[in-house]
Here is the input.
Amino acid sequence: MKTEPNIMKRRLLLVQKLLYENTDEQHPLTTFEILDYLLERGILTNRKTLKGDLDLMVECGMDIVTIQSKPNRYFWGTRKFEQAELKLLIDAVSSSRFISHRKSQMLSKKLISLSSGPGQKELKRNVYTVNRVKSNNETLLYTVDTVNEAITGKRKISFKYTDYTPEKKKVFKHDSEVYTLSPYALFWNQDYYYIVGYSDKHENISTFRTDRVAEIEVTDEKAVKKPKDFRIDKYSSEVFEMYDAGETVKVKLKCRNEHMRYVIDRFGEKVETEIADEENFYAYPEVALSPNFYSWVFKFTGEIRIISPDKAVAEISSMAMKVLDNNN
Here is the structure.
C-alpha cells in the first residue's frame, strides 16, 4: 500500500505533466477537469488540496497561470520556445539540404514535442515537406559533434574528403588522402555547413563541407592557434561562397537600381554604395575573385557589371568568351 507522501509526490508529478503537455493560453483546464484526470489514475483529492499543490508548484518556480473564474482554470505559461519560434526551427530543419530526410523528420518530431498538446497538433498540420535536394549523409551529427569536441579540447582533427566520379560513384579525393585540420569554427553558408580551420597541407585557413567529410577523428596533436585577427564573419564575407576562393579585392560594380536588394542580400547592409545616375548605382564590396563571384555577376545578364579593377574585368570577359567559344 502506498504511503501518503508517495501519493502526494505522484499527484504533484501528474498535475505538472498534465498542465505542461496539455495546456496553453488558448487551452486551459478547469479545477474539475484536473480532479477528474487524477481520479482516472487512482488519486482521489479535493479542490482545496489541488489549490495547495498548484500554489506549491508556483512557489517552486513553475509558471502556472490561474484564470479566476467559477471554477478556476489553469494553464502552463512561459515555455522554452514560443509556437512561432518552433515553427521557424522546424522549417529550417526541414528545408536544410545538408540534413538527411530521415534526420529532418526525427528532429522535427523532437521540436514538435516541446509544444503543448494542442500546439503539437497545430504544428503537425502546418509542417510541410519541402521538395528539394537533401543530403544522404547520415553521419552529419557525428561529424559536428567530433568537430566541437576538437575545438573545445584544442586538438587537430583528421579525416578523408569525398568526391564523385562521372558515374556518380562516391570516392575519396586524392587517393584517400588523410587531411589534418586545426578547427576554429563551424559555419553555415548558402545552405551548406562548413568546418573552418588551419590546414596543415595548404598552410593557411581553409574550409571543408561537413557533408563531404568522412572517417573523422580527434587526434592527440595540439591545434595550431587561431590568428589573433581572425574573425569568422570577416573571413566568410571575403571568401564569399566558401569555394574556389581567389584573391580578395575591392571591386566597383555598376548596378540597376532595382537590384539593390540583391546587392544587400549578398554583401550586407554595410556595403559601400553611391548613386551613379537616375537608373543605376555603384557598389564597392570586398570579394574573392573566384568563379563563384563571377557566376553571381553573370546571372544579372549585364544589369550588374564589374567596372574595376581591370583584372576582374579581364577575367569575367575571358570567361564570357570561353562560354561563347564552347557554344560554337
